[in-house]
What we know:
Layout: E1 8-14, H1 18-29, E2 34-38, H2 44-48, H3 51-68, H4 83-93, H5 100-108, E3 112-115, E4 117-120, E5 125-129, E6 135-146, E7 150-152, H6 168-173, E8 180-184, H7 188-199, E9 203-207, H8 219-232, E10 235-237, E11 242-246, E12 255-259, E13 264-267, E14 269-272, E15 276-278, E16 312-314, H9 325-343, H10 360-363, E17 367-369, E18 374-379, H11 382-388, E19 393-398, H12 403-408, E20 415-420, E21 427-434, H13 441-449, H14 454-457, H15 470-484
Helix pairs in contact: 1-9, 3-4, 3-7
Domain Pyridine nucleotide-disulphide oxidoreductase dimerisation: 365-471
Cofactor: FAD
Domain FAD/NAD(P)-binding: 9-326
Amino acid sequence: MTDENDKTYDVIVLGAGPVGENVADRTAAAGLSTVIVESELVGGECSYWACEPSKALLRPVLLYGEASRFPGVSAAVTGPIDAAAVLRHRDYMVADWNDQGQVDWVTSAGITLLRGHGRLAGARRVTVETPEGETVELTARHAVAVCTGTRAALPPLAGLDTLRYWTSREATSAEQVPGRLVILGAGVVATEMATAWQALGTQVTLVARGSGLLGRVESFASEMVADRLRTAGVDLRFGSGIQMAERPDGPDGEVHVTLADGSRIVADEVLFATGRAPRTDDIGLDTVGLAPGTWITTDDTFTATEIDGEWLYAVGDVNHRALLTHQGKYQARIVGGVIADRAAGIALDTGAWGRNVGTADHLAVPQVVFTDPEIGAVGLSSEDAARAGRTVEVVDYEIGHVAGAIQFDPKYVGRARILVDPERRTILGATFAGAGVAELLHSATIAITGEVTIDRLWHAVPSFPTISEIWLRLLEAYRDRKANSGGGE
Length: 489
């Protein structure tokens, strides 16, 4: 270990979110002295303003919807959701935005925590401005890992700097339920927050430039979400954009939103859910020859490809490979091993399934959208396959025809789709849409990552009566199609 006056470490990690924590955990466990630098809360965006608080808002909403539709239970649902109780639960899940628990973990893992804003200052060097106004200079013997994540990307609107608006942070941490909310965007943040706030009592208008929601998932799944949002009372306005937003009566007044077609909406809050940008604009990238505010390109060991010497790593959102916490943590585990092996002079294992290579980023990236209904997707979508010119066989099955789904909800509405490689007879993609499908996703991820053939999947027997029986029904549908086409099975 390094004494407190020694500012040279084996590894410097910029950013103490889940990604940075995992990098530091792996390098410290390998015996490398490691310091992690954080300017905000230890635990990062996911813990306090994204994954954790958003799901804390959404779980009661989804549970309420399921209960209100279930025989024998629906009659007991006699009133609206207790929004104040939901917000208190959200506060509990984020520990009231107190990071002491995560600080304690960092310390217990043998990692040095330095609070402040860290910036690169040349090769293997970092300067940190502490909250007390001091400047600390750090040197890394082996590696610097940039794990600073992303921030909300904002639209190019005039007067935005004087407009009090919401990003995902304000949407997940709001202390009051707004009466009216305009959401600009059609992705995961937009649809999840529309789902949550509408159910908590907000009048929501969602404005999207495109013709639908969630453009990166199968259209059948996104259309189900749109239908449910409309039924819940969300005003969906597709094929439009925002022209102007202002609060003519001051920052505490109503927000007036003018759309591209000239129509106007008056609301209490406006949420910009228009994508993410790398949090690399003020971390000293220029001192090592990279452009500030850009994504950092890496190879599959997550080593920055434009930097000589194999000392700079970009892990998680900042490399723009997969903007998901679980993928960032996966990358972090890879990077921790890469740094440790290089420090020990061990040749890297970078074969197709080597311990030092991020294969999963190319093969099977799972994601759950916690809307009503839930969407779970991994691997290719049918549109992905078409764009790539890949021949696939598309197999669909209505989840509501499965006994376990009927036990879940007698009027269950949902669909499953798998994409099969006709030559290798392996699954290339899977999408599930329906209540409770999030827990189906890992089995699909394993099937794709493990390149399990259809023939072997026949022998993976799902329990009855569970929703996982959808796997059997999909395989039967595939077999029957082959039999009807004369292909046999």
